[in-house]
Amino acid sequence: MGALVHDEHMRELPAWVAWRHTRVGGRKVKMPYVAAKTPWRAGEPGLSLERAQRLKGEQNLDGIGLILSRETGVVGIDLDWKDLGTAPGELPEAARKLIERFDSYAEWSPSGMGAHILIRGRLPADSRHRTRWRGIDIEVYDDKRYFTVTDRVILDRPLAKRQEVLEGMYRAWLKPQPAPAPPPAAGGFDEGDEALLERAFRARNGRELRVLWEGGRLPRHASESEADLALAGMLAFWTGPDLERLVRLMYRSHRRRPKWEERRGETTYLRRTCQVAIQTQPRFWRGSDQTRRKSA
User: Fold this and answer.
1) Measured by CB atoms within 10 angstroms of the end CB, which terminus of the chain is less buried, N or C?
2) Cα pseudo-dihedral 229, 235, 239, 240, rounded to 10
3) Angle between the 224-239 and 193-201 helix axes, to the nearest 10 degrees?
């Protein structure tokens, strides 16, 4: 058995539940219990490990789980890579890197298409809980949740204090984004797309625009994502706050790549990039030579 269930302190904590697969609203969920007919409710204490295991056996439940709470100081990091098409029990390279980075107890999820990393630490109060990296869905919680425990160990380490690593994840992925600035006043080049592009390529920054349009990158851009946003920003000056037109023009460029189709919440990477470009554009083209010289 792994280090988690051998940890005497963790075994005695009232932080354990037993769970059963249950249909709720047509969806299969893992319902946690602290007694035969008493579901565990978020924020309430659980059982000792021994009592949870006994409840599982007596009621023929499907597994046990660990409650994440501020009292226990345990943070759970849930990795799910079912969309990658790997076989159950196959560990993707990106998941392996995350597990090695935290260097704490890690085990397989019940499906074999994900993993749970357990560490000691605490999330910042304003932390978001979900992100996605290299095809892996990541959820991070430290309170009012529980994680299933399979004891099918990937990395057999005691629960380690990894606050610094956790805060690095927060800064990179979980820190709330500032509210977008209101879009600038209406404007934009009102002739057709071909005329717009012709005018844009003749502008003062036309050569840089051409490099980005052809799929290149300027020296000041550290990544393809920065170059995507730069192209969208240059084009947004001409399209004005017309999101659909900006997206259409971006797709016409030679920068197009599969990442543009990746989901970002309710939208896609490209549409979000275009939204940011419009929201951060200080002014749009208005037909004035003076405005054009200052902005182009």
Assistant:
1) N
2) 60
3) 110
Q: Please state, in angstroms and rounded to a whole number, the distance separating the CA atoms of residues 5 and 23.
A: 29
| Structural domain boundaries in the chain | 3-174, 193-295
N residues, the chain: 296
pLDDT in tens, 15-74: 999 999 998 878 889 999 999 989 999 999 999 999 999 999 999 999 999 999 998 899
Residue 121 tokens, joined: 């630490």
* Whole-number Å distance between alpha carbons of 149 and 76: 11
How far apart, in whole angstroms, are the C-alpha atoms of residue 115 and residue 138?
10
**Strand 106-108, strand 114-120: pairing:** antiparallel
180-194, 227-241, 252-266, 268-282: least confident range: 180-194
Residues whose CB falls within 8 Å of the CB of residue 75, separated by 6 or more in sequence, listed in order: 68, 118, 119, 120, 121, 122, 123, 140, 141, 142, 166
Q: Shortest CA distance to 68 belongs to which of 122, 106, 20?
A: 122
What pairing do the DSSP bridges indicate for beta strands 153-155 and 106-108? antiparallel
What is the rounded CA–CA span in Å between residue 263 and residue 257? 14
Side chain identity at residue 263, one-letter code: R
